[in-house]
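Q: I have 363 residues here and want to know how they pack in 3D. Can you give me a structure?
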Amino acid sequence: MSNFVSKYFDNFSNANSTKGNLGDFQHASRLYIDNNMRLAPKFSHLFHVVLNINPNANIAALNSSIKYEINLLAKEADLPRYNVDSQVINQYNRKKMIQTGIQYSPINILFHDDNAGLTTLLWEAYFRYYYADSDYTNSNIDGSEYIDAVGYNRINAGLNNVYGSSDIFTRFKYGLDKPNKTTPFFTSIQIYQLHPEGGRARYTSFTLINPIIDQFQHDRVSNDGSNLSQNTLTISYESVQYGRGYTQVGLSPTGFGEYHYDKIPSPLGTAPDDLSKFTNVISKITGLANDIDRFKNGNLLNFTNATNNVLNTITSLSQSSIKANSSNILSNVTNNLLNNIIFPVTSITQNVKTVTSAIQRIF
């Protein structure tokens, strides 16, 4: 009768509820967890950026390994943003909204300012590729650079050397006055969101077409604190293409999983059979830890049988790493339990010490 009556006092309006008086709704679980978490939100920290530098630009300073390392140093990236141009018109005195175009908003990509200077090198290569301002440098004996005074000398009432009619004046070029720079530096920039689907690793990609750098910003230096430095790129682009697929090492995304990735398997292993047995071991150890009353009541035999049951399960594990972890867990549990209990009967205390030493010898 109590079960029948309790249905009228639980947190459900339906008297036929089978969840009991503590049952809750599982809408979120059904939505986000079912079907291998198919509809669960993506994690924002799982992403990969690929800067596709035009091979025809012949940027010698950025070889393949350096390009892939720069990609890994991206710490934050905006996904594409769009502004749709619209207009209100009159259609026989009725207001009508129409679209007149679309604008692609610039995005920011933040990079770590690494000790090797790779992300700074990226901007330097871009700067030297398009602009002649930084061409007039020479190297000191120690390899450091200094400004070539000839290129920036001011003569004739403060005019730079670029002004004049003779050859010495006209050979200096500045700004975008660089020949044969019609080939774009970037072919595209790709931002990959990484996420699972159906138990497999997938990606959603956003490819920015014909991107150019609108702004490059070095970080602020300060002796107040110890913040990590970063470099910020502001990128404009002409269009966006979307893509989806399964991740592949080195291919999708490009360079993914090849550079600076730890490819040594975990010592815990991944054998499904051993993992299920390991879970069983933990369950039995938990049950063993809850049986303190057996000691207090002097029932050493039940404890010994329970301990042997756990040890037999550990012995059946095939992977030595999982077996060692299981043994260490059991040893810590038994030591903590037995060493912190004072038994009123001397004989029980002696039997407990015997079991403890036996377990330690097994390990």
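Q: Anything worth noting?
A: The CA atoms of residues 289 and 333 lie 7 Å apart. The two ends are 53 Å apart (CA to CA).
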